[in-house]
Amino acid sequence: MTKLEKSFSVGVIGAGRIGRIHTENLLYRIPNINLRCVADIKIDEKMRKWSREIGVQKLSDDPYKIFDDKEIQIVLICSPTDTHAKFIQEAAKAKKHIFCEKPIDIDINRINKILEVTKENGIKLMVGFNRRFDRNFKRIHELIVSGEIGTPQIIKITSRDPVPPPMDYIKVSGGIFLDMSIHDWDMARFQCGSEVEEVYAMGGVLIDPKIGEAGDIDTAATLLKFKNGAIGIIDNTRQAVYGYDQRVEVFGSKGCLIADNESTNTVSIYNAECTTIDKIPSFFTERYIDSYYSELKYFFDCIAKNEDPKPNGEDGLRNVLVAKAAQKSFAENRPVKISEIK
User: Fold this and answer.
1) pLDDT tier, 33 (very low <50, low <70, confident <90, very high otherwise)
2) Domains along the chain?
């Protein structure tokens, strides 16, 4: 563990799956953090037991306990998407810096208002696109920036979940392009070094008819055209029976970079019948666990040095614009320019 240059008092809103990952990193992996409160509006006995076991000082069902606590300097927002806008504005008005899970919101006007409020109050806002901090994808980015493969021309991203999420989640998620592919929009922009200009998305319901009945699709392929002329190719599915499939390839004028899946270990089995390796990680909590730590450590380092973190609110806005364009493209079966999205 590397100590921060300064110590910080922190509050966390949301103690679901991702909130627990961040809370445990704050307590166990990032020194000089005083976690004063974890708040969740739906506290049950299982959550109370978890908070006691890991050493949470205070568990509250009122997020405003965090905003009203003058000792708290930083707020982590890990609650459902439809609460993000409200909580960001409250934290900004209380002069607290903010780390917020993606997406900021699904409404463009609300996102613009959030960006105005944080700017007016001098608040630093980082959005949790953690895959930028994965060691493999980060290495690809470093090599691109160093000129190792020249100018990026084609970015290919494969992002496939092992199983569909619960139907209750599907109904409120905002759809595959907003809740799942949004990580891939960010990764494509991150690696390309350019903004998306046009989107062409297609997809269908190939896994579970109930997903279609809920108004979503479960399988998608999207083409992105970037302002610098590069092309992005992204495929998503809600179900890959072999595990959590996460791959990135960047082809450039001087070469190609590939980040393949990592197995859960490096052991190969050789016998008379076959040669095998163990399966890839089962889901994001296993595949990206170190990236969640790395993004938080980076965020606190930025606050300590008074630097603006990335990805920021503007990145959050641009990724939602791509998602909206993909939705419109799929619905109207045509390429859609980002400039069409308001």
Assistant:
1) very high
2) 8-123 (3.40.50.720), 132-288+319-340 (3.30.360.10)
